[in-house]
Amino acid sequence: MGDFEAVRRQRFLSNRYYDWLLPQFTEQVEYWAQHDAPSGASEPERKALAARYRASYAHRRFLLEFTSGKSLVALRNELPLLVDTLELYSTLNRAAMWDDSVPPLMFGEIGEYEKAMQLISLCHLLHCTELLPRLANTLDRFYCAQDTLYEDLLSYGMDGRYDVDKWFHDRPYRLLINSFYRDSEEESIRDVAAYLDAWYPAMKEAPWHDCHLKANEQEGGAYVGYWAIEAAAAAYLLELDDTSFRNHLLYPKDLTDFARAFEVRQQPQSAEAGARPLTVRTGQICPETGVWNAAGHNVPGVMVRQGEVMPDVYIPDARGTLKPTPATWIFERKA
Q: Which of 264, 279, 312 is the last residue of a domain?
């Protein structure tokens, strides 16, 4: 297996296709920053359409780079551009249409609704919640208090959001919405797992559905990755154990792991003086080199280096066979 195949996050993406498509996206993002669209009844319309193209290419490039395995630290630095381009399109389109309420993404179209949920979720997962008010400003005048998932996702980073019981797309989003209102973690986990299974079939009307079948230079470049990013946001925000679904093809587990590891790095580095101890789960990235203990398991501490993946613990079953088991690890001491 080559280096690209080892780091890519979804199997449909080939190195050749990626190398062919990425420069095109970058060229288009740069081109539409400097040129008006050739169509449009007026200059404001042509400028708005160019801004729409740029925002679309920036978003697709971001997803393509994520799918390729690009560092999430680097992608965190690129996320503001997605909000910048969407804001610019929103401003220019409102001016062209003489309507200060028109949104840049139409929730009635499932592909655009999904894009909006992706952007909000990325703000949480990459710890860029300062971008949430800017996103809401582009969408609220039309969609404020009109969709439960939109409000729920925003409410984790903004005060004053609305409690509503309606949404634009029942399939597949009802399942994810339910996960926010369950009485137990187990029920929420089942909801997210069911959502992941339902997600792709429900996206049949999205313009990119089945585009992985034509992910080559001859037939086009619509495929950039299939990711239910909002499922990762739910797992992170609700503090769910994602062990049962983290290997699902559509679940961006690296984003969940990054969000949790980033949060851990902001915690105090020891339990002294009443400070909160470092904790991290199996499968997440180790934030601190040292000895870690598995909470609730009578096993010796293990040495794990910063940047490594936290291991399972091995627990004997009824027959005495050691079985790998996920654990919550607590930092004991530095090496």
A: 264
